[in-house]
TrEMBL record, chain A:
The keyword Transcription does not apply. The lineage of its organism: Eukaryota, Fungi, Fungi incertae sedis, Chytridiomycota, Chytridiomycota incertae sedis. It comes from the Eukaryota. This is Rhodanese domain-containing protein. CDD domains: ThiF_MoeB_HesA_family. It is found in: Cytoplasm, Cytosol. Pfam families: Rhodanese, ThiF. Keywords: ATP-binding, Membrane, Nucleotide-binding, Transferase, Transmembrane, Transmembrane helix, Ubl conjugation pathway. GO terms for cellular component: cytosol. One of its GO terms (biological process) is regulation of pseudohyphal growth. Residues 288-388 form the Rhodanese domain. The chain crosses the membrane at residues 26-47.
TrEMBL record, chain B:
HAMAP family: Urm1 (MF_03048). The keyword Methyltransferase does not apply. Pfam families: Urm1 (PF09138). The lineage of its organism: Eukaryota, Fungi, Fungi incertae sedis, Chytridiomycota, Chytridiomycota incertae sedis. It comes from Piromyces finnis. This is Ubiquitin-related modifier 1.
Amino acid sequence: MSKEDLDRYSRQILMNNFNKDSQLKLLNTSVLIIGAGGLGSTAILYLGSAGFGRIGIVDNDVVEETNLHRQVIHDETKIGLSKAVSAQQTIKKLNSKCECYVYKLLLTSENALSVIKPYDIVIDATDNVCATYLINDACILTNKILIQASALRMEGQLSVFNYNNGPCYRCLNPIPPPAGTVTKCNVSGVLGVVPGIMGCFQAVEAIKIAAGLGANYSQKLLIYDAELGKVRVVKTRPKQENCSICGKNPSITSLIDYEDFCNMKKCTNPNMSKDRITVEEYNEILKVNKPHVLIDVRPKEAFQLSNLPNAINIPKLELSNNAQKIKDLLKKKAEEANVSEVPLYLICRSSATSLNSIPILKEQGNFKVSYIIGGLLEWKKKIDPSFQIE
Amino acid sequence: MGKNITLSFGGGMEILFNNTKEREIELPDSVVNIKDLIAYMKDELLQERPELFVLNDSVRPGIIVLINNADWEIEGGLEYELEDDDEITFISTLHGG
Ligand SMILES: [Zn+2]
């Protein structure tokens, strides 16, 4: 190890159970963090600074203002930028020696194995159940250790899978929850620091595993409740012989369709869902005067600066309170056009907000709702260059 | 006399049970094992939407059940016989980050 590294990591090496060899092991270990959101932010910060030789960051989203209260690796100057790239920029400033690769993509059954393969340890810092099953299965098929965590409201959960013959996520959760029972941060809310704490726990596990100190939470589940101030560490079942992926006779031998498996045809890949239309398609709808309702979900201030003439402004945070109003609007339009129902379209600056608005509306009723891909930026680019938006 | 146990909830399960994360209850004599307990909770304690709690005489997928802070699978699952002062926990798996 170089003198420079010895100095840089000296306070860590000072510990009596973590020596130069442990530090060297970190330098020779690679970690893939899937999701640069609330969990990923702190996990990536600590892994980047701990002295890992190589880290990879997977994220397909862009930074939004509503992320900043918990996704502390990003900042106000990064709004609109790819989360993976933003996280990489932070790590480059923090530790220029850490090789940091980004994957600006959505992990799918097609790409997961090739993305995961070059790494030793995988951190699941995603926010949905389909991704968790996909990552679990991909880690079993490529024999990687998986550190999985999640957080919602004031609670977090964490476990280590496929470690030293321990169980996998499927051993504990062979059947996914029914689609209607799962809620996400953009519906239920989350106290910013809670995913941060869980991401820190993920970093500790990765460091201990890489340094050869052993995982704390293999065949154990950590449950943190910030409301009660309670941390439970519970023993879970061991690896299950009848597990469909890591058992004796696995029925799953290659990655499957996880949206289908989780009964959520839209949860892992928004680009594949039918809940979206292009700006060209929307322009066509306007041209032929097809009856519909268009809601601009940006904040009032942004809407007042520039908007599409037929758009109604209901900011994302006010959607659930206005569900009845929207239902009435749709009903009125349908009556005027003498049809049974009319579609609802959502637009915002880049489509991140409108995409996240869809589950909020779906919580409130059976809306036939789509978002416009690329939002007003795309509208300006493809349809109306004179449209005022930055 | 019935047994006294503690029920605890998390991950949103508490919303179905009076928004309380911990409560002590005295069970009727008819409640012997976890299977009985789930049926009793569904009939007597659940506030709304049973489909968010039960499926086919057990809890729905996505609920972690703990018997005295251990995975119920290693304690006998539905057949586990309740004892005085047991803590039975129902926590929904979280999916957020
Ligand atoms: Zn398994």
